[in-house]
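During the no-cost extension, the postdoctoral fellow (Dr. R.K.) reprocessed legacy sequence entries with the updated structure-token encoder. One reprocessed record is reproduced below for audit purposes.
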Amino acid sequence: MACLFCNILEKKVPATVVYEDEHALAFRDIRPVAPTHVLVIPKKHLAAVHDLDDVHAEAVGRLLVAARRVADQEGLTKDGYRLVINDGDAAGQTVHHIHVHVLGGRSLSWPPG
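Re-encoded structure tokens follow.
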């Protein structure tokens, strides 16, 4: 089966896009757990954090910068927000394409789940 997020990048699957640059795409999560819940993905398929190596450092850095831009754009920086990256099935990664959850708009408890 093809990667869902790659299909979103290729416009084969619709998504509510809120940010895009040459390195990343951000869209609203279809099952939000906070008033603001946006997923930020790299435009290059990278399956999981545990697959990363030094050659991916720039791509991951750009991904985090894109997540920060989304938080700014969504008005989350004043009160704070959470960035989450799940790695592997036991951590709750359901789509095996690295993605950052940008969560905010309410008070977020700790520890999560």
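The chain has two helices and five strands. The radius of gyration is 14 Å. The remaining legacy entries will be reprocessed before the final report is submitted.
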